[in-house]
Amino acid sequence: MTRRQDDYRGETMMNNPLLEIRNLKVNFTTYYGPASVLDLEYLSIYKGETFGLAGESGSGKSTAALSIFKLIPSPPAKIEDGEILYNNEDLFKKSENEMRGIRGKKLSMIFQDPMSSLNPVFTVGQQITRVILEHEKVSKKQAYHRALELFELVKLPDPENTFKKYPHELSGGMRQRVVIAMALSCGAEFLVADEPTRALDVTIQAGILNLLKELKQKTGLTILFIANSLGVIAQMCERVGLLYAGQIVEIGRVSDVFKKPIHPYTSALIEAVPKPSQREKPLAVTKGFPPNPTKMPTGCRFYPRCSKATDRCKESRPRMIEIEEGHWVSCHHAGKGEN
Ligand SMILES: Nc1ncnc2c1ncn2[C@@H]1O[C@H](COP(=O)(O)OP(=O)(O)OP(=O)(O)O)[C@@H](O)[C@H]1O
Q1: What are phi and psi for residue 54, nearest 5 degrees?
Q2: Is the peptide bond before 290 cis (omega within 30 degrees of 0)?
Q3: CB of residue 142 inside a 6 A radius of ligand 1
Q4: What SS3 state is found at 227?
Q5: Is ligand 1 within 6 A of the CB of residue 57?
Q6: Would you state the pLDDT for residue 307?
Q7: CA of 58 to the centre of ligand 1 (A)
Q8: Phi and psi of 5, rounded to 5°?
Q9: Which residue of 114, 140, 148, 174 lies most exposed, with the fewest beta carbons within 10 A?
Q10: For the whole model, what pTM was predicted?
Q11: Is residue 290 within 6 Å of ligand 1 at its C-beta?
Q12: Mean pLDDT by 10-residue block, N- to C-terminus, for the chain (339 residues)?
């Protein structure tokens, strides 16, 4: 029997996810009025998995990530509604003081540009020991040894020497390794990686991706991996959610979603990936542009760009429907077209 939206929630709640996002609505106040940037009905991430969040630039990936940490700039952003549960506790109900204890200790984040997390006027050693001393009851000497261990864990060459370097003395890949070491320095079990390799060239990128995979195996880390690149998501993640204009349109195991995409947006994104075997063909381009968040279309947000769009798509928002076990899509044309 086909399962629908209500089962989608019920199923995941039974399996007890580590992180759950429920009905998260985030608006930005803009000159043109409120912009509906995120309208995330439901998302769950399980212990030990790497979950990929993919979508075009501006689809709301970073807003979702920053919401988990209660770090979206407010104003202009406003969390209108929703819950983010971590180990069944609502993070939105935590005080700023409690959140300070959670950030770094349980949840950590790494960003696209490592320099946004590093201070250019302190050595990387000073910066990592400061983080350790802030969160842990250890002596300076113990913090120093912990820092060296972490530098070794992230495979930085000559940890003692690296410890004394300023960020500008390290390469981009080494800086990202320092940031990963800092993110893990207080034992965080959940890592949000927001396009951590976007600013790096491909060989360095591969090194960082392999490092994250190894760390996950060694430490049992759970990762929310945000990326524009479907190739990187395919390499890193077990499950993926496709975000379009702030809403999840398709979610499931990477192998299912990428081999048998159902939502026209997912198919369009996969079509747009350059393939060496089709070098002569022009790249597929999805017509139109993502919607203006101050004037989101009613119904399905993708309908103005969708070749299958009908009046129904314009009028009502499609609900999630399960196509195959664990593979959910929100499209009026999915399944037998009954959702
Ligand atoms: N301070 C702000 N004021 C107004 N709108 C904002 C602000 N910050 C972000 N936005 C809007 O929120 C939307 C989502 O942005 P977000 O950075 O979350 O997207 P993203 O998918 O992470 O993009 P990228 O892949 O480029 O990082 C965009 O339309 C963006 O213009």
Answers
A1: -120, 160
A2: no
A3: no
A4: strand
A5: yes
A6: 87
A7: 5
A8: -40, -50
A9: 140
A10: 0.91
A11: no
A12: 67 74 93 91 92 93 93 89 93 92 90 87 96 91 96 95 96 94 92 88 89 92 93 94 95 94 92 74 73 89 90 92 91 75
Centroid of ligand 1 to alpha carbon of 117 (angstroms): 19
Phi-psi label, residue 22: left if phi above 0, alpha if psi -120 to 50, beta otherwise: beta
Edge-to-edge strand ranges of the sheet holding 222-227: 107-110, 190-194, 222-227, 50-54, 239-244, 247-253, 327-329, 321-324
Answer whether 34 contacts ligand 1 (Cβ < 6 A). Answer: no
User: Which residue is it, tokens 């204009």?
Assistant: 245
Residue owning tokens 């997390």: 117
Residues in the chain: 339
The pair of three-digit structure tokens given for residue 137, joined into one six-digit string: 């009851």
What ipTM goes with this model? Answer: 0.94
Atom 25 of ligand 1, residue of closest alpha carbon? 57
- d(C-alpha 181, C-alpha 219), whole Å: 13
Mutate to test the pocket of ligand 1, among 61, 232, 243 (most ligand atoms within 8 A of CB): 61
For the chain, how many helices (H) and strands (E)?
12, 12
Closest among 192, 170, 174 to 183, alpha carbons compared: 192
Helix (H, G, I), strand (E, B) or coil at 274: coil
Q: Is the CB of 62 under 6 A from ligand 1?
A: yes
Q: How many whole angstroms from 128 Cα to the centroid of ligand 1?
A: 29
